[in-house]
Design goal:
- A seven-stranded mixed β-sheet has the order 2-8-7-6-5-3-4, with helices on both faces.
- Helices cover 39% and strands 14% of the residues.
- The protein is built from 15 helices and 13 strands.
- With 415 residues, the protein is of the alpha/beta class.
- The longest helix is centred in the C-terminal third of the chain and has 20 residues.
- The structure holds pyridoxal-5'-phosphate.
- The site of pyridoxal-5'-phosphate (PLP) has 13 residues, from helix 6 and helix 7.
Length: 415
Amino acid sequence: MSAISRRELLALAAAFPGLETLARHLPQQAPHRVTTAPPAGPLGEADWQRIKDQFVIDGLHLNTGTYGACPLPVLDATIQHLRAFERIIGQEAVDWPAFKGEVESFLNAWPGSVAVLRNTTEAMNNAAAGIDLAPGDEVLSTTHEHIGGRCCWELLARRRGVVYRTFAPPLDPADDDELVAAWQAQITPRTRVLSIAHVLFTTGMIQPVAKLVRLARQRGIISVVDGAHPPGMLHVDLQALDADFYATSTHKWLLAPKGTGLLVVHPDRIATTWPLVASGDWAAANIERFEHVGTSNESLVQGLRAAVAFQRAIGQDVIEQRDRGLATRLFDGLARLPRVHLVSPHNAALRSAMVSFTMDGTTAEHLQGYLGRYRIRTRRIAEFGYEYLRLSTHIYVLQRDVDHTIDLLRDAPVD
Ligand SMILES: Cc1ncc(COP(=O)(O)O)c(C=O)c1O
């Protein structure tokens, strides 16, 4: 998917006030595909500053991996819908067919394959509960799964005798193939599901989902992808990935309102996967069987629609190139600090827009407190006994913000 034209953007602005400002400021530019080592982005720092001005962030947000910040057009669309809804008479309906078309096109998902849910956790639970697994059936995954991607399997293990088996993946592999080989070596005749985090929340490593899905398909194994991070950060082509289930949180990198997520189900799996919540459409053979969960908040969906429009206005490839370019700048700057040990991959092709590290003489907890005093928000990864600090680089981060953070870390106090 390419960046949209200024004309399209102005048309969208009629539906989403706030995009007009962006349309006026963004230069026309050719979108780039990201390469293994992303070159400098086509927009200059002044353009990115104007994009940053679309946010109300008070400080420096380096934790998009937990949740992103909504830009003004998203806030406006959400709030306007919320107000209009409370008029009760003459409420504005979300244009669901148009919205679904936009989100499917953004992610290149199959038509009719996208269900709107609350988040990755809920989407992963739908997938896990919807597949019929018997005692002894194995679900294979890594030791780096977030609670949102693993608790659904742990519950099945406790309740149904399913075996949830995890292995330690190589964290600094030479290439994709080393990761594929590591997964392949763990598959047994009992393996029924590969539960794959597209991007590891611990280190930001990108896993080769398309290759792993192919590996699974060749063996009749179901693929469930925890895609909490990529949409809005990487150029995602769901039909090319071809997973059976892809779960995501649009309130992270896609910058939609909190409490919005998607479950994308392969067309071959929709009719045979049980819905987690049964409501009016539970027996329908279409994607709505997962989506109809009683009354929910459509203002969030209106905000999600505006978030997709906002990112299309900039261009997915442009955003990926920017985010990963900033992460590389950060990675390289941190690599020059003598006390820092990077845990994110050295191969830039496997690195996303999250960089994790440890530092001699202090802990992630203390570093988080130290940067917090400069109004910088970060994530401490303390799961599984790790003690990493994780920094996310999204579109409201400027090069000078990265350099400032590196300068502060250079002077981080020893405990
Ligand atoms: C890899 C991964 N999976 C799942 C989740 C859970 O996301 P949510 O709380 O939006 O369901 C997260 C949250 O950070 C995550 O990083």
